[in-house]
Amino acid sequence: MARTEPFHAPRNQGFVRVAAATPVVHPADPTANALEHIALIEQAGREGADLIVFPELSVSGYAIDDLLMQDALLEGVEVAISMIAAAAQAAGVIAVVGAPIRQTDALYNCAVVLAGGRARAVVPKTFLPNYREYYEKRWFSPGGEARGSVRIGGHWCKFGSRVVMEVEDRPGFTFAVEICEDFWSPVPPSTRAALAGARILLNLSASNVLIGKADDRALLCASQSARAMAGYVFTASGWGESTTDLAWDGQAMIHELGAKLAEGPRFSMESHLTLADIDVERIGLERLRTGTFADCARDEDRRTSEDDRFGRIIIEAEEAPAGPTTDLIRPLDRFPFVPDDPARLDQDCYEAFNIQVQGLMKRMKATNGERLVIGVSGGLDSTQALLVACRAFDRLGLPRTGILAYTMPGFATSDGTKSNAWALMKALGVTGAELDIRPTAMTMLEGIGHPYAKGEPVHDITFENVQAGLRTDYLFRLANQNNAFVLGTGDLSELALGWATYGVGDHMSHYNVNGGVAKTLIRHLIRWVAAKEHGGETADILHAILDTEISPELVPAKDGQIQSTEATVGPYALNDFFLFYITRFGLEPSKVAFLAHQAWKDAARGDWPANTPDDEKVEYDLKTIKDWLRKFLVRFFRTSQFKRSALPNGPKVVTGGSLSPRGDWRAPSDSAATVWLNELETQVPDA
Ligand SMILES: Nc1ncnc2c1ncn2[C@@H]1O[C@H](COP(=O)(O)OP(=O)(O)OC[C@H]2O[C@@H]([n+]3cccc(C(=O)O)c3)[C@H](O)[C@@H]2O)[C@@H](O)[C@H]1O
Ligand SMILES: Nc1ncnc2c1ncn2[C@@H]1O[C@H](COP(=O)(O)OP(=O)(O)OP(=O)(O)O)[C@@H](O)[C@H]1O
Ligand SMILES: NC(=O)CC[C@H](N)C(=O)O
């Protein structure tokens, strides 16, 4: 896709900005309603919206009963629609309004799609409520079967409920409409519209408010956006609508793939907009990777008669007036694996920890295991694995002394991590021991003729991997000796980067509980376990471990500087961000860079996960993001897959994916990264 707009414009990154409008209603006064519409359309234009949607019967008012059958009112509605269409064109916004429309001597409750200064499609409501407080069949005909064309404001346009609008030159900007009761039915018309290709579903609603109803609507919006794999924009009539027998709260919500992007104020007396950027590109990728969607679409198509098939209406994109590029309008977690919302984070930690514990317990049971062996470095990963082991042993009723924990100092082990490792093993009540790997490592270095054995300060990969390999060698033989198995500690982020020593190294174990957990989540998990399960001394040690710089400690410190993992592979905060969007959704590198920049460019903007220390509240500019993303792409796509092609067992934990070859990431061990690198270089500016 040729990019003609600047990199920083959300519109150019596969987003469609939608506005759910909540106008003040003037019952049975189309001209007054038109003016409310026009004011909101102009505001939407200034805010950079592509599409604005109004409530059900927004031009006439909903609760006007038999006034709907008055010729003067219906004529007034048509005039008002023309006024609104002209205003929408001037504002550069596609508008969808609610209006009573006559077609072949019947009246329909319709959504009118306005683009290019005129009505382009009229979609009648399929399911008319006629129960309890609703009497719509008194005035309207059901629109499910209605087909043909209709003349509005002197222009003919398509009439019928089986239409998907497609906006030219905006890939993925396809939308369809349903009206209020339609989505309270067991099979909402929007389900079929989604299967026919609509990625944004609009609901024009006049849903009177009752206690508890807002939650019901939110549930339906969230579930319809999840089930139909779509964006769902809902807006219901608000202040000004007739309260003769009912009341109106003006609830407006925008959802995408089950998640809420935006929600407007309820019971407001002012006209207002609820805005969000819907990621139609991501919706397309999600449908693509979930084969069930296409299977269902085929199935539906097979059972649909020719007359019932959806048609496409191609709409030219409205010319947006020039204006400053605005930031993305949607929630965007800096840490995709660590939600900002404290309740959600608590729930995620609870689930992650229990998934890890359950995985290990089953393996212990299946092997009649009563002991396991683990290398404890005083770093994050082995700490988390040890916490999981303790919980699993407690739940299985096994004594923690069956956990055989070894701290194994090498040439670069610092006093700090070693003493943290010892303090942790003691506090948790496991069987701790120390095994100095240096003599054996020296023997091996001598045996292979490595210069370090002759006293030269050569700290190359061989020097590093001799140590990592010997630790693993010792652990595996200790497992044999003690009728135990080796618990792995490597995390998801390390697997993404290939940051482990292959085979005879920390890459291998008998069972790995951390392989499905990203490093950024491991940090919070340790905090969470410290707060929930441990107090006093253990919690203090856990916090001391959290405060330690992440390091493999394979190369001795130079000038007081320890070997820093993040200085080599990049900040885990960014790497986990890249990993999530690339593996979970398959986004192209430029979009990942765009999102990372939106999320990380300003430390003062948006929320941080609860308990994030102030010194971790950093920001990254686009150049820094591009540089680290380039390295990530090389590591992920070109150099590290062979390590993931041979992984020990362990549970999948996060939706961002597991990188196990038996899980949801399969890739060749000998591929190139060229396509991703080229896309990055050509599409992402350096600043
Ligand atoms: N596609 C492919 N298919 C088959 N073999 C392939 C291969 N690509 C490389 N190789 C071979 O693999 C070997 C390189 O892999 P490997 O032996 O693993 O070594 P390598 O990846 O070069 O080094 C391990 C890295 O992980 C770091 N590390 C180690 C241990 C713990 C931690 C930590 O903090 O968690 C970090 C360490 O600092 C070092 O940078 C070479 O012999 C190469 O020829
Ligand atoms: N000094 C050590 N003593 C015992 N085991 C070690 C030691 N150093 C490394 N290991 C083992 O090798 C694994 C990989 O080392 P690494 O340094 O990556 O892990 P970590 O220190 O637990 O966590 P992080 O990578 O987050 O610092 C450790 O989890 C641990 O099981
Ligand atoms: N306008 C309508 O279709 C209203 C009916 C719908 N069930 C509601 O209460 O929101």
TrEMBL record:
InterPro entries: C-N_Hydrolase, C-N_Hydrolase_sf, Gln-dep_NAD_synthase, NAD+_synth_C, NAD/GMP_synthase, NAD_synthase, Rossmann-like_a/b/a_fold. It catalyses: deamido-NAD(+) + L-glutamine + ATP + H2O = L-glutamate + AMP + diphosphate + NAD(+) + H(+). Pathway: Cofactor biosynthesis; NAD(+) biosynthesis; NAD(+) from deamido-NAD(+) (L-Gln route): step 1/1. Keywords: ATP-binding, Ligase, NAD, Nucleotide-binding. Deamido-NAD(+) binds at residues 465, 494, 499-502, 643. It is an enzyme of class 6 (ligase). It comes from the Bacteria. ATP binds at residues 375-382, 489. Its EC number is 6.3.5.1. SUPFAM superfamilies: Adenine nucleotide alpha hydrolases-like, Carbon-nitrogen hydrolase. PROSITE patterns: CN_HYDROLASE. The active site is at 56 (proton acceptor), 125 (for glutaminase activity), 180 (nucleophile). Residues 16-280 form the CN hydrolase domain. L-glutamine binds at residues 131, 207, 213. Catalyzes the ATP-dependent amidation of deamido-NAD to form NAD. Uses L-glutamine as a nitrogen source. PANTHER family: GLUTAMINE-DEPENDENT NAD(+) SYNTHETASE, NH 3 /GLUTAMINE-DEPENDENT NAD + SYNTHETASE. In the C-terminal section; belongs to the NAD synthetase family. This is Glutamine-dependent NAD(+) synthetase. It comes from Brevundimonas kwangchunensis. The gene is nadE.
